Fold these 2 entries.
Entry 1:
Amino acid sequence: MSIDLFKKAYEGAVTAAGYAQIRLDQAIEEYGRDHAVAYPETAYFLPVITALEGTKVETLNQLVPILNKVKTQYLRPDYTFEGARNNGRVTLFAAEVIEACNYLDGPKYEAPWTGFLTDPILRRFGIQLVDFTIPGFAVIIGKAKDTQTAVDIFRNLQGKGIMIMLSNEIIEQLLEAGMNLGVDYIAFPLGNFTQVIHAVNYALRAGLAFGGVPAGELEQHLEYQKKRVRAFVLALGNQDDVRVAAEFGAMYLNHPTITDQPLTKEEEIPDWYLYEPDPKKMIALGLELRGIKITTLDIDIPILMGPAFEGETIRKEAMHIEFGGTRTTAFEWVRMVEADDIEDGKVSLIGPDIDSVEDGGRLPLGFMIKIYGRKMQKDFESVLERRIHDIVNFGEGLWHNAQRDIIWVRVSKTAFGAGLRLHHLGEIAIAKLKVDFPAIVDRVEVVIMTDQAEVDKVITEARKTYAARDERMRGLTDEKCDMFYSCKLCQSFAPSHMCVITPERIGLCGAVNWLDARASHEIDPNGPNSAIERGEPTDPVKGFYPNVNEFIYAASNKALEEVSLYSFMEQPMTSCGCFEAILALFPEANGIMITTREYGGMTPCGMTFATLAGTVGGGAQTPGFMGVGRQYVISKKFIAGDGGLGRICWMPKDLKAYLRDEFVKRSVEAGLGEDFIDKIADEDVGSEPDVIAEFLEKVGHPALTMDPIVE
Amino acid sequence: MSEYRTIDPAAQEMLEIAERLGISTQFDRYKAQQPQCKFGLTGVCCKVCIQGPCRVIPTKKGAEMGICGARDYTIVSRNVARSIAGGASAHSDHGREIAHTLLATAEGKAPDYRIKDSDKLHKVAERVGVAVEGRKDVDIAKDVAVLALNDYGKYTEEPCVWLDTNIDDERKKKFKKTRISPPAIDRAVVQLFHETHMGTDADPVNIIFGGLQAALADFTGMSLSTDLSDILFGTPEPVKTSANLGTLRKEYVNIAIHGHNPVLSEMIVDIADELQDEAKKIGASGINLVGICCTGNEVLMRRGVPMATNFGTQELAIMTGVLDAMVVDVQCIAPGVQEVCNCYHTLTISTIKFSKIPGAAHIEFNPATAKESAREIIRLAIDNFKNRRADLVHIPNFKKDVIGGFSVEALLDVLGKVNASNPISVLSDAIRNGEIKGICAFAGCNNQKTVHDGDIIKIAEYLAKNDVFLVSTGCSAGAFAKFGMMSPEGVEKFAGPGLKKVIKRIQDAAGIQLPLVFHMGSCVDNSRIQQLWHRLALDMGVSVPHLPFVASAPEATSEKAVSIGSWMVAMGIPTHVGVMPPIDGSPLVFDLVTQVARDVFGGYFIFETDAEKGAQKLLERLEKRLWRLGIHKKAAEVYSSATNLMTDLMEG
């Protein structure tokens, strides 16, 4: 341990705190003590302070005692590891104060720079964080020794699916090299200097939003960071005092730092502060320190694979070839076959490969996956088929949209140039399915068709299967199934929450339906999805099932005694943090409103999605508020205990568009009429309750004449 | 001769004589001071109170604090801040003198002065918000002068006019948010002395920011000083003259004007013309005026008076034996000149009530009776001609051509010959198309810690060769003048291909010969350099911290240099200093001004005593800013056009 290093941490904290004090006093002088202070679209105020201090800061004057507290209690020339971590803690608060002041004038971050990451962004990656598709966070500060090194580090992390937070000139280096940055690539160029605090704001909100860790429970938050937020810092290039202090701030939160700047033996702090200049070893060390295990595919493909490329779009100019999208015939189909009807590992291509067309070309496509497995079931075909989207989309330079016979696939010029051919897609699919579904998938064969006649021939067979599956799904109701499934996939992030998934109630993340849960249970009975024998309900309308209650009681450590499956007013299901949409009571119209993660605007209950989410998440039961998957809205069981579909008085236009066809079908079934969707107010009508009530009155919304929703 | 720590051949020749005659110069006294105190050198010696001096050793238990408990960072930041206060005092007081003179002129109380540049008066008036329409110049001038004086002592909190009307909105906001916008010049300086008084401020960040407030007060003072000087004495225009000790003429009455304020020197130039005949009457061929230091720069810029030498070698001018008087006012007059005068016939004539030297003559200069005082001074010189000692006469035969006089107005005028509708774009285009890599401004003094003039020339050569456009003020300008770098000769010898192309293009269009390094004036005229980058940034559509513009003071010496460097950093300019100032005793303060400053202000100090490395770093910073500009431009295009994929798909 080195006194010089600890002294740097102290002096960095003195500098940061001194600057924070100047900025805070100036802000109070300019705007007044009671001026509002907030980050955009968050229910967690200034998350560093919310989490670690418990103060929900809404006005400038609240920052004064907080800054004073950390300065007076922890800013010390204490040249020990613990002293340095305390000085790091001061630096976190100082940075938060400075950034909060920066937001007083509403700084306009020019894309791709992000600044503060909003709650919707936090939740967008919820499911990928909890199922370890995103296995960890890397925070990169500074500037790599050259652009190539920056790229090497970045690509390596991307290939491992790590979420990347960037601060300072590494951002320009990556931009120079043409790397894609931004929310869609799970690589956030936060900004410079104190803007690195937004990585901390993100990490601490994981505890608040998913973990149900109460605001201000310091020890619990530190524990949560240690156990569940697997972050590490890569400090590149010249280290100034403030940066060193910030790194000790990360260490205070239990996240280690690896630097490419030589450290003497004395300066290294085992497990916490280490020197490693080699990009590969640096990342390996980070993973090792946080216990992150990466499962890699043992296949030879010319492109990187990972969630970072899921959001990648391929524009016309960048495209080598496209399939489907109504321009050519295309489909994908997973078929369960018998043992002797399959040659394991084989990929065959019927028709021309993609090197037969010029850039910007098109071909028809049939992508058929044959699967044999001793424990494979016909019902799992659709589960595995839906995985093709991820499997293809995770490939860099590959873009996949929709499913079945309406798929649309693009391959970029870059991927093509790197040597990607159609057989690679087959190889990726085979490897991925075997790794992800070892218990139900024994043999996989892929047949790729680009010959028009062949595609036309096979697509008719596929369509028969799709129709049969739809028929089966229609018959799949809660009453007719034998088992429900729990889902504790989120336990890595939300230890106190438990989902119950039924055929008619999809998981609130929208990513796990009953078939998925069933398949997952087959793969690993002790895994995230346990079976709950359905049994008979005591209240079939509200959905109270004794077996479910018994399960929940035990699984929630006796925190929850009862959960209703179809009511959001009475013992509603809890929410982790990954929900796609939120239902909230709208008493003015005797109904409810729905808002989605994508909709950032104001809603009739006076809260945005971000604020509402703060009320809903964290594993607590809050009658009148609930997180749901969007598909649940068109389920027959949608809040059946509270009056059902007819209660919906307000929802964003985007959600209407997303659900429209099914929604109209359901409305007719429910006797609400084909035009019910148009009787629901949206943001065009407004977000003021009285305006909406007036609108509902005018169109004769059914909720107005239903039984009172609140007794 | 290489043992003399100067590369100026005239100085080398004179130092040999000094050695032979046993005359003490700055060069000798620097040696005699070695080794200098380590505590002082690194800034950790505190003499703020009489319990001291306290000298701290930050890493030694028991020695890490002064008696009062001040740590290294408090002591160092206080010392630096006090230097800034000293510099700001000097520059702004200089400006105040000019403002008073303008006011007296407008009120008819200084009949020997007049408003020479009515055009500039109108432009300044419009900028600072003084009504112009249908008013007489004297009335406008009075309001302008009063408004300027108001910047010194107003009691209200709004920013100083001469700061606020010279910077862009981005910087205004930055200064406001960081609380370094001075409400008044005097107040900033007084407050800083208060802040750094024993037992007041101990927070190094706060102290440095207090220092920056005083540094911006320094800028305010010098910017109004430049404006009002131009109004009274004319805005400089390109002028041909010469430099180095070879400009002294044996058969003439030689008068050196040394110091800073043109209020005195302009009058001396006027009256010298008038008294030529008196000089001839006593057997001289006339009066030969030469300049030293920034007064030299002032009269070179406006009147084409030759530059004898710069700060480091001021004593050597006396040793030519032909200098009949050295007329001095304020700042940078080394008391050592009087020591040399004691061995020669030269009269040092001080003129200001707060700037005197034992043994020197004193003729108090009063703007109200300016011509009378000037006559009195010049007559003393003429009268002294007879006292020359032939055996001590030695004029080194070194003299270079100089083309100076590049006020921003003059520079734009010249650039306007290439592009009349947008003159400054000639430079921004040259940056954009890669002909030049940006601009480096040289400022500052001479410093005995390096080889006199050596690093200034070395760094400029390197940058010129690498296509950096060069401008200069102060004693750096003196060095360039003496080395032919302010002449077309410099362009031929040192400019890289891109820079040469740009200068030739302007030269051909303007029809006048141009120098390699553009002389922009005295040290208060660093305000002109600020105006250059301000206009360039506006034209390029970027804020100053993104502009490929750097500054260098290879031989920074005075407190003024500390304050200039500090406001340049606050304005967003990477600023190289070639000598180590007394701050590295505190790693915190060192880090703050070299690194954290970049995060907060965009500008920062580069301390590098090796000239070659310093030059490389300056070039690197320019290239880096160009690099960033390119990337940000590209990113803005890529990411702002990232429309929804679906729209793209709809198109077909």
Note: Residues 3-31 of chain A form the longest helix (29 residues).
Entry 2:
Amino acid sequence: MADARGTAEVTKSSGVVKIYDGVRIHMLGDTGLRITSPDGRGSLTIAHAACSFAGELRRCLPYRVMLDQHGVKHLIDLERGTLYLNITGGPLQLPHSSTQVPPHSIVLALKTERGTLISVTGQIDGAPQ
Amino acid sequence: MRLLAIGLATAISLSAPLAALAQHRGGGGGGGGGGGGSHAAPARASAPQARPAAQPGGFDLHEDVGAPSRPATPARVNVPVRSNRPVNVTHAPTTATRPALIGNLGYGGQAGNHRVVQNPRYHGADWGWNRGVRWNPAPNYWGGGFWGPFAFGAVAAALFGSIYYDDETLSSYQVEPDSPGAQLLENYQLTQVSCGPPDLVVIFGIDNSVICAEPNDLVAAGEYQLDPSQLSIVSLE
């Protein structure tokens, strides 16, 4: 798990897409998550979410996302989003979908108030802190 | 990984109110700032509008930083505006006088003298139904997300009638499968119906949400308040 990485994709309302391969994904407690950019200079933290289980898959509805970048914290106004967490050792089926979430992995999709779409997939490479 | 991301993002758009996600795929170009290790998709969009200068590195989210100030917690909306979906209400909603809700219920509070209708499936420690993980409502969502991931203002669920009381209208929406609310209804063997007719089970949830169901052997007709910690309901009568 030490070398586990994920991919983040940021799609702006203008249509500009940026893809970040090699983001690091750490869990924070039961429901929190930190996603760190490949260069380590920025991180997105989801610390507040309503989480329940769809089978063994944890589904969270985040409502507060913090961007910590260049030593400054910014609150990102979030419109809506969903985070799926598979903390088991086996693949789990995404509800109402043919897609499986791999073991120790996440699927995250957010839409900000400004219309930016953020999607992240990848393995969790940090144990709950 | 890219293919997986595309597939999963599309899947999420089907199961959560993020249909726009899949629709925005395939754009690209520039963006300013950007971060190490990242790469931009081929250019397509017009130049972004003027925005604060971005420093290199990290995530290119500077358009979302310094957004117009607003409260950290979004303003509550009593009745979410939804439209463009079939409305399956053919009767006039009843006018009900809702008894005062029980304070702190669901977050370690006591029901006092109110009658608790125990969940037939779960007993014992708080949040046991959620594997011991506390469930916190998300204010962006109708009912805090308890009944499903329906964002305020989003067209995501069918209207299931409404209730008037104290000059206020509470709209009810279809409970999403796999939501905590669906689990509650299943545990009590309740089937959701449109709010409005008399003699229904009326469950008041979080953030002025309301769900109605036909009474059964486990739950008599009447008004109840949700206790999310125990995934149970408490009679308000």
Note: Chain A has a mean pLDDT of 89.
